[in-house]
Write a structure and sequence with these properties.
The chain is an all-alpha fold. Helix content is 84%, strand content 0%.
Length: 165
Amino acid sequence: MTAIALFTSMILSVGSLYWGYVQAGLEIPARWILMIGIVWLLSQWQHWTWFSSLVLFVYVSFAAFGLILGFDFGWMLAGSIFALFAWDMTDFRRRLRFTAENDDSAGMEKRHIARLTILVLVALLLVTTALFIQVKFTFEWGVLLVVVVVFGLIQLINWFRRQNK
């Protein structure tokens, strides 16, 4: 389950930043964001946990630069939020390797993902509120929000199912 959350957040981070830069008309930096994202995905199979810290710094820098230049606030912030989520999931996966056999690692995993999902949903709700106030809510932002909410609801339903067993 951690791997699914990790790869989903990585894809959403890359996609959000990429789309924000494409909308601003900067194709070359958008391609760099995409290439870094592909290497980031491949680094997970190589167990290069250090690479997530580097990508977090680079993607937050891209997002900050985009905000300074006046790019779409929502896409820049979403890219940063999902990069932070992916960085945390990478570190959490690394720490899970060191748990004892009698530890409830599956339970720890579910609780950690649930807490992070709630945090991301609250952050995206605040961003969505800001976009509504600025009258910049777009169809693409709505699609991103629906995808994140669906993943969150699926996770919540699975959590309730397991609690009732």
